[in-house]
Amino acid sequence: MTAHENSVNMKRTAYHHGDLAASLLAEGLRALDAQSAETISLRALARAVGVSATSVYRHFPDREALLSALAREGARRLSRAQREAFERAGGGRPGFAATGRAYVRFALANPSLFRLIFTAALTEQDNGFAQRRTDAVLDITAEFAGPRDRVEAIRDWALIHGLVMLMLDGQVPVDDALIERIIGGPA
Predict the structure, then answer these.
(1) What is the pLDDT of residue 45?
(2) pLDDT band at residue 152, thresholds of 50, 70 and 90?
(3) In which element (H, E) is residue 21 found?
(4) What structural domains does the chain harbor?
(5) Which of 4, 133, 10 is nearest to 74 (CA)?
(6) Global pTM?
(7) Where are the alpha helices (H) located in 35-171, listed in sequence order?
(8) How far apart are CA 24 and CA 133, in angstroms?
(9) What number of other Cβ atoms are within 10 A of residue 100's Cβ?
(10) Which residues form the signal peptide (predicted)?
(11) Max Cα-Cα span within the chain
C-alpha cells in the first residue's frame, strides 16, 4: 500500500490547508456577521473551510477557545477603529469624541462580534484577557482624553457602552443625531 492509499485501498489525496487557524478565524468572523456567537459550531466552520472537524481541534481544543480567539480579534479591530478615528479627527477633544463614535459604529456594524468581545472573557481562562481588555479601553480613554482618573475613564466608557447596548437591544433607536448629542464633538 502506498502512502496515499488507506486500508480499504481507496485513494486519498494529500491535503494541506495553509494557515488553518487563520482560515477558521476568518470564517468565524464571517459567521458572526450572520448569527450570534451562541450558534457558532466548530463542525460548521470546519465544513465551511473544507476540513475535517477533527483537524479544527489541533488549533482550537473546544468551542470556547475559538470564541475566545474571535473575541481577541474583535477587540483588536475595535481598538484599531478607535485609534484611526482619533487620528482622522486630529487628536485632542475632537479625537476623543471620534473614538466614542467609532465605538458605537463598530458595535452597530458588528453586533455579534461586539457582544462576544465583552462576554467571551466571562467564561474563559485566557491569561487575564478580560482584565487586559478593560485596561486597554481605559488606556485608550486616558490616551485620547488626556489625564483622567480611573473613575472618570470608567464613567466615559460606561456612558458609551450603555448607549450601544440600549441601541443593540432595541431600547433606544439607532439615531446619528442622538449619538452626536450624547457623545458631542464634530462628526
Answers:
(1) 93
(2) confident
(3) helix 20-34
(4) 65-183 (1.10.357.10)
(5) 133
(6) 0.79
(7) 42-49, 53-56, 63-88, 92-109, 111-119, 129-145, 150-168
(8) 22
(9) 26
(10) none
(11) 73
